[in-house]
Amino acid sequence: MEFIVYILFSETKNRYYTGFTANLEERIIRYNHKSKDFTANVNDCKVLYIEKHDTKQQASHREAQIKSWKSKIKILELISK
What we know:
The structure is a single chain. The chain is α+β, with helices and mostly antiparallel strands and about 80 residues long. Helix content is about 40%, strand content about 30%. The chain is built from three helices and three strands. The protein has helices at about 25-35, 55-70, 70-80, and strands at about 5-10, 15-20, 45-55. It has a three-stranded antiparallel β-sheet, sandwiched between helices. Strand 1 and strand 2 form a beta hairpin. The longest helix has 14 residues, at about 55-70. The radius of gyration is 12 Å and the shape is globular.
């Protein structure tokens, strides 16, 4: 099974969100229609970046790495590559 690390952006909140999933399409639908957390009250999340990984462990590690940056500048650098 393939796992995807992704970065979303919400214009309404002017924020980035990093996560991972095995089904990106389903995850985006949930964010834009049924979420209670990051995307609560917005439906404008757009995928700006994806990375594919072979295992859940690899994807989880990469997600944690990106989240640890806590820097929009580093996220924008990653997205622009």
